[in-house]
Amino acid sequence: MEHGSKSESRLKLSDFQAIREEEIPDATEGVELDLTGSGSSYSGDCARSYPRLIMEANGLGSQGFPELKNDTFLRAAWGEDTDYTPVWCMRQAGRYLPEFRETRAAQDFFSTCRSPEACCELTLQPLRRFPLDAAIIFSDILVVPQALGMEVTMVPGKGPSFPEPLREERDLERLRDPATVTSELGYVFQAITLTRQQLAGRVPLIGFAGAPWTLMTYMIEGGGSSTMAQAKRWLYQKPQASHQLLRILTDALVPYLVGQVAAGAQALQLFESHAGHLGPQLFSKFALPYIRDVAKRVKARLQEAGLAPVPMIIFAKDGHFALEELAHAGYEVVGLDWTVAPKKARERVGKTVTLQGNLDPCALYASKEEIGRLVQQMLDDFGPQRYIANLGHGLYPDMDPEHVGAFVDAVHRHSRLLRQN
């Protein structure tokens, strides 16, 4: 089966919330739509084409997705040779862009996440500025705990907050059946379908989710933490309950990720953002088995559903102690943070996986000339093939968009020179 532009995913009715055709208003030039109940309206390309796309997503149309014009990212992910090094940035749709801040000002964070039109617009914004080789859907890893029945709010200046975190084993009874998650997250699938159409084949679209351990930390800590002491207390004092929660999260993540592919995602990234809080032993016991299980079951479900395979990326921040294990966990790409030396990483994982990363995000505070030098060194260390350029973590809100552009341009420029020599 081909992995390139001709292997297009077909949409399934069961993966989306039902929307009757008569409930969708006509979309004409200049009409603003509020199709999500969020209270915010959107105009322009995303709003105008939204009804047609939802009809297609629900089996009411026969149009496929536009043919992919730039498959460099996908070819690199699959381990195929590329003419240059593809590049994208974690959190490329973010607060460093003034247009992002303007779009987001109208509503709170999770209302934005529940608006397919808003997610489409935010996903496309960095593509209008920079010649990136992939888009990643605007969403959040914490929509999964929300779909399981937990209340999550985003507090300005603080971050995510769970008013009623999990404290005791009996609290697991509060969680919804993980089989219901896809019906709760139809707005994510709709956003992916809408964005995939609006990309018009320019670059591939990446879907994503948080890994089970990382989601568990938020659900128990009630938000961010510098130590994850409460979540780790569970691992030591409630190991059986910990595994039960991790299984619930895995059972929720598998259909959610498959649904993203059915909706149009062409690659998937799993974020194990809190890997560094676990040492090798705890990681091997409470994180790695579920990381493996997600990849194995997603691939099997895609095949069962008749959907084309997509490359999967695992990014375990500060998980340098488990590089070898991650390279054999069933993912085509292993993402690296900036604390890992590229040459040593390649020696450790071998040549069977693609590496992604790993410029220190703070390097973008440097001059454009220095960014160019740092990118050159990074590309020299990674080598020209089986490599996707990225940062070692997400972009920060105070970064200069022009320096992000300098990073992207430097990757393209130097990687082409590297192949000539």
TrEMBL record:
Instruction: Cite a GO CC annotation.
Output: cytosol
Source superkingdom = Eukaryota
- Give the Gene Ontology MF terms in alphabetical order: uroporphyrinogen decarboxylase activity
Please state every residue range assigned to the domain named Uroporphyrinogen decarboxylase (URO-D): 86-95, 206-222
* A single GO BP: protoporphyrinogen IX biosynthetic process
Q: Which reaction does it catalyse?
A: uroporphyrinogen III + 4 H(+) = coproporphyrinogen III + 4 CO2; uroporphyrinogen I + 4 H(+) = coproporphyrinogen I + 4 CO2
Q: What class of enzyme is it?
A: lyase
Q: Where is it chiefly localized? A: cytoplasm
**Record-linked Gene3D superfamilies:** 3.20.20.210
Q: Tell me the pathway.
A: Porphyrin-containing compound metabolism; protoporphyrin-IX biosynthesis; coproporphyrinogen-III from 5-aminolevulinate: step 4/4
EC annotation? 4.1.1.37
UniProtKB keywords: Cytoplasm, Decarboxylase, Heme biosynthesis, Lyase, Porphyrin biosynthesis
Q: Name one Pfam family in it.
A: URO-D
**In which compartments does the protein localize?**
Cytoplasm, Cytosol
Q: Which HAMAP family match?
A: URO_D (MF_00218)
| The protein's assembly and partners | Homodimer.
Protein family according to the UniProt entry: Belongs to the uroporphyrinogen decarboxylase family.
Its job: Catalyzes the sequential decarboxylation of the four acetate side chains of uroporphyrinogen to form coproporphyrinogen and participates in the fifth step in the heme biosynthetic pathway. Isomer I or isomer III of uroporphyrinogen may serve as substrate, but only coproporphyrinogen III can ultimately be converted to heme. In vitro also decarboxylates pentacarboxylate porphyrinogen I.
Annotated protein name in UniProt: Uroporphyrinogen decarboxylase
Q: Look up and give the organism this protein is from.
A: Enhydra lutris kenyoni (northern sea otter)
